[in-house]
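Why run this: before we spend reagent on co-expression, it is cheaper to look at a predicted model of the complex and decide which construct boundaries make sense. The entries below are exactly what would go into the expression plan.
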Amino acid sequence: MTDTPVLSVRNLVVEIQTRHAVLRPVDNVSFDIARGEILGVVGESGAGKSMTGNAVIGLLDRPAQIVSGEVYLNGRRIDTLSPSDMRKIRGTGIGMVFQDPLTSLNPLLTVGEQLIETMREHLPISQSEARERAVKALEEVGIPGARERIDSYPHAFSGGMRQRVVIALALCAEPSLVIADEPTTALDVSVQAQIITLLRRLCRDRGTAVMLVTHDMGVIAETADKVAVMYAGRTAELGPVREVLTRPRHPYTEGLMGSAPLASLGQTRLRQIPGNMPRLGALPQGCAFHPRCNRAQTACRRDLGPTLAADEGRAACWFPVGATETAKDIA
Amino acid sequence: MSRFTSAWQSDFAWKFRRSPVAIVSFLVLMTLVLGAVFAPLVAPYDPFDPGSLNLMNGFTPPMEPNMFSGEVFWLGTDDQGRDVFSTILFGMRISLFVGFAAVLFAMLLGVTLGLLAGYLGGWTETIIMRAADVQLTFPAILVAMLIFGIAKGITPVEYRDQMAIWVLIIAIGLSDWVQFARVVRGATLVEKNKEYVQAARLIGRSKGAIMLRHILPNVMSPVLVIATISLALAIIAEATLSFLGVGAPPTQPSLGTLIRIGQGFLFSGEWWILFFPAVTLLMLALSVNLLGDWLRDALNPRLK
Amino acid sequence: MIAFILRRVFQSVLVLLIVGLVAFAMFSFVGDPVENMLGQERTQADVDRLREQMGLDQPIVVQYWTFLGNAFQGNFGLSYRQGREVSQIIAERLPATLELAFVSGVFAMLFGIGFGVFTAIRRNGIGSNVIMTLSLVGVSLPTFLIGILLIWVFSVELDMLPSFGRGDTVDLGWWTTGFLTQSGLKALILPSITLGLYQMTLIMRLVRSEMLEVLRQDYIRFARARGLREKSVNFRHALKNTLVPVITVTGLQLGSIIAFAIITETVFQWPGVGLLFINAIQFVDIPVMAAYLMLISVMFVGINLIVDLLYFAIDPRLRVDGTKGH
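The model came back. Tokens follow.
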């Protein structure tokens, strides 16, 4: 049983039915996250990263819905659960950290009220026990003077402190998976590193699996164990973070690396990928990346790239970078 | 070219043709207005000519004939034998006249004060807008009642009935200028810093000329929308005041007065004396309201 | 925060002074109070003596000051029409209006907030659409027609509820109440609905739009993501945030309920101050009109002030930073 990944996503497809067309913001995505492992999900905005996270936790907004694929949490299938069963999973099974700490907290409830409410919803504890644990939770995320500040309202905290509160809230019912959706994007650069370090430490200590959604390659490089690169709703590349970052195989990943100022990887010059990611309604035929790809050939214009399984180390590309044999043989 | 005329020429008419609600409202309103305007020609009886009345015809139900001429009273008669259809037509005349006149008065007052406040600024603006704020604290209908009461007190007793209609117009108009003033002031503040106004000032146009020729045409489209919505409110306000007995006098009954009279017969079973004036008032208010809503969407000026 | 409240109090006093000026002007310039009081057989000496007694020979500013002093003590002189103390007449009539306004206010709030939340949560349900359409018609109907319609259905056709008056009341000495008898309670139903319906639709539409706005917020998503129950998300998290703007409008609506009671009281011959005011206008009874005006103003201004204070109770952000008024 220890081998069962905390989260398994298999061939997940999310569709949005609009009046004119059916859009697929998430198309055939598969990945696993093991206990204590951090999976970084990168890509440009609109690539389907957040949508994947929302689909996993069951919070897709109405026109968007899961049309096929499976989601397993600790081996239990959750994408088919009833709304009320899914609600019970949220908080205890899966926690979530949102992007903007300024808007994630209810301004009219104290941080203590929000923590206690969440814990008592999921754990069989009394009000005073919950309060004790809330103080401890705040201490754990590094709020100084937690016992006094537990009765403060969110507006009394700075942005970085609020994100710590958000993390405490996401973790307070001891979920086995945390989805962190751009947790540092809205923060000052100076506190970004602190928050990422905190999140990583807490999850390592508790063995919580993390799905870290971000567009920041630097954050991935410092934090993640594994990385999934998404492009236009599909996984472009999936593998251990060091391998993917040092020897990217998908031309998109390579380009992405080129455009991220990664001091740790010895890159100094910024390269730009020509063009923009296509809109979902206007995907080109074949591989969605081919119009921007300098390696594109006839096959790329004709066929969708190979679909990546949850196994690691492959790029969804017919002609991967640095490969001796063609990817078609591997696929 | 002003925003309003350009909107009219480009797609205003097209938008109108595309909206069934607007077309139906417009047709209903036009029918009612024409009926009111040509009441002396359309109405089968003159309800104010004692010669044509006969108490023997009193309380005739709808579609029953006149005892003497045999002509059918379509909507029945009231206690004094007056043809309800005719009284409604003449009542509408009063209602619409008061409504239009009150809105016109409110518009003139509000637009003038709004222009002055916006363009001149300073003390003028402070006084006008403070007065507007204080008045806004109170519901318009209450203000109208109060003004009506005061004006009635000032009018000599023997002229009170004659003056009632004009007092009503002033009362409703005064209770409703604030909306106009606020919107016009806002629009004026925007317009006055535009280049064409600066240019007009540079070539030595007077303040009055700039306000009238340059700014006024450019603030007209929100004014038009407010005027339409105000018209519905004014018609309802007039009906309410007259219903309460502090509006149109019994000698010049408006729809509200007719409803007041009809309410007395509710328990004795002569429902038509109340019902038809009420329905007419409802159609009037509803059609103006819907038309106003549509107009706001079609012209889409920055209201609120 | 104290500075903010002081400023609001100052503004309120200013409004009251202006209204007082209007009321004073009514006394001074509408008709001649001396003539009104003395009647036909009077001598110049009588007139002069009364003028002096009433302080009418004083400078206008002094008269205004005296008037304000009297008004402050509830002294508005005698009613031209009834020849009795205005304050006494109003005191007799006030309980009827306040009870009516209270019941319709509660009705408007309960149903307004209830329907507002319902139509926001079930945004596309049939029930919501029916309620929204009905509310549109309700807004277009003049209040007095609603009252007549209710009388027609429930009093004339069904003969279930009384169409006029307060029913039996119980005299508590300084207050007469209709809450304690069955007929008193029955008499309250139709007028309360008539008076509250318009405010109810306003509150409902406001709650709905605010609620839809709040339900889109991140903290609502976050509350859902923490697995809180829908009930808790909708009511504890969303509704509470909706209430801040709702309280403003609702508070002001409660003020206009007292003013609109004039119409309802006339339709139902409800013996309150509104009916008194209408009769006063018909007979140009200036003291009653002025007293009513001052009374209503004090209530309005008082309600506005209470609404401002309620902000502080509900929104903790304001407690720290008092300058954020509206």
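Chain C touches chain B at residues 15, 18-19, 26, 29-31, 140-145, 148, 151-152, 156, 163, 256, 259-260, 262-263, 266-267, 277-278, 280-282, 284, 286, 289, 293, 296-297, 300-301, 304 (CB under 8 Å). Residues 321-326 of chain C have pLDDT under 50 and may be disordered. Bring this page to Monday's planning discussion.
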